[in-house]
Write a structure and sequence with these properties.
The chain is an alpha/beta fold. The chain has four domains: 81 residues, Conserved hypothetical protein from pyrococcus furiosus pfu- 392566-001, ParB domain, CATH 3.90.1530; 55 residues; 95 residues, no CATH class; 38 residues. It is 62% helix and 8% strand. The chain is built from 15 helices and five strands. A five-stranded mixed β-sheet has the order 1-5-3-4-2. The chain starts with a strand and ends with a helix.
């Protein structure tokens, strides 16, 4: 649709009730105000004609408009479209504008995605990616936090806890526990697990959210120790303590319980890759005596080094 560039009176413009942005950050607003005061509004705001004559509704540029009012500027440059976008088009258009500039915070983005889904009826990840410009992984993450109780969403909205913490808890604790240690999981709850790790973070025992990824191999080790998901493991008590005790360190527990198993799996994979590489080299060095001699020498040295380490285990 066509949009014409015009100068509009600041008091003729109204905010868009659809804008997912919920919080405006003072430091960022101050920087924007200083820039506008020095250089003016370089990027026009984007509006459509409202239902009342002489009034316009923002599609994009609420921060620029707000800071212009704050500075006492009477008119602002605006791209004006005549027709009001339909509900789905409105939120999708706002989405795509913000993707190429300052993005919304995490919770507002999730709420905007929810509106896209509700108004288009679209749930397919590829189609949502096309409509919003978000990656499929981000869409999955946002849909996950949309299912969280409001008290957790408020923590994300207020920037108290990053969205990624809840994603990591879901992927590395809640899902593995429910699938691999169902009896232990029956004694816990999703909210109980979330609250425990939030308490651990507040107590300083969880300094990096990435540490949560080490919960998965610890849970896997407990499952392998039990041999069957329905059987108990001595490590179940370790997992429970790790979750419920806000002072117990994931790093230390991982080193004691799962590190050896993880490293052995990596070593096994590296050994298979080495054998495959040797097989390929045998094929390409066929008839090249110098290359085959060098390969034989490397293999011989490797065998001797590995045998020495195997003997040390006796």
């Amino acid at each position: 649709m066509d949009a014409k560039l015009r100068e509009l009176k600041v008091d003729s413009i109204e905010p868009n009730p659809e804008n997912p942005r919920q919080i405006f950050h003072p430091a960022s607003d101050d920087r924007l105000a200083s820039s506008i005061d020095e250089k003016g509004i370089l990027v026009p705001i984007y509006v459509y004609k409202g239902p009342i004559d002489g009034k316009f509704i923002l599609i994009d540029g609420e921060r620029r408009w707000t800071q212009a009012k704050r500075l006492g500027i009477s008119k602002v440059p605006a791209l004006v479209r005549n027709d009001k976008p339909d509900d789905a088009e409105n939120i999708i258009e706002m989405f795509n504008i913000h993707l190429v500039r300052a993005q919304w915070d995490e919770m507002p983005t999730a709420l905007a995605l929810q509106k896209v889904i509700e108004r288009t009826g679209q749930e397919d990840l590829d189609e949502l990616k096309r409509l919003t410009g978000l990656s499929k992984e981000k869409i999955k993450d946002f849909r996950l936090i949309l299912e969280l109780p409001k008290r957790y969403q408020d923590l994300i909205r207020d920037r108290v806890v990053p969205m990624n913490m809840f994603v990591e808890i879901e992927e590395n604790v809640i899902r593995p526990l429910s699938r691999q240690r169902p009896k232990l999981w029956e004694q816990l709850s999703a909210d109980g697990v979330r609250d425990s790790f939030l308490a651990k973070r507040n107590a300083g025992a969880l300094t990096d959210i990435v540490e949560l990824r080490k919960m998965r191999p610890i849970i896997k080790q407990a499952a392998e120790d039990a041999g069957d998901p329905e059987e108990t493991s001595d490590l179940d008590s370790v997992v429970r303590e790790l979750i419920e005790d806000k002072t117990t360190s994931i790093e230390e527990t991982y080193a004691e319980v799962a590190l050896a198993g993880v490293e052995l799996n990596r070593l096994s994979g590296a050994a298979r890759s080495l054998i495959a590489a040797v097989d390929r080299l045998i094929g390409v060095t066929d008839g090249a005596s110098e290359d085959r001699d060098q390969l034989k020498q490397v293999l011989g040295e490797t065998v001797v080094a590995l045998q020495a380490r195997a003997d040390a285990l006796e």
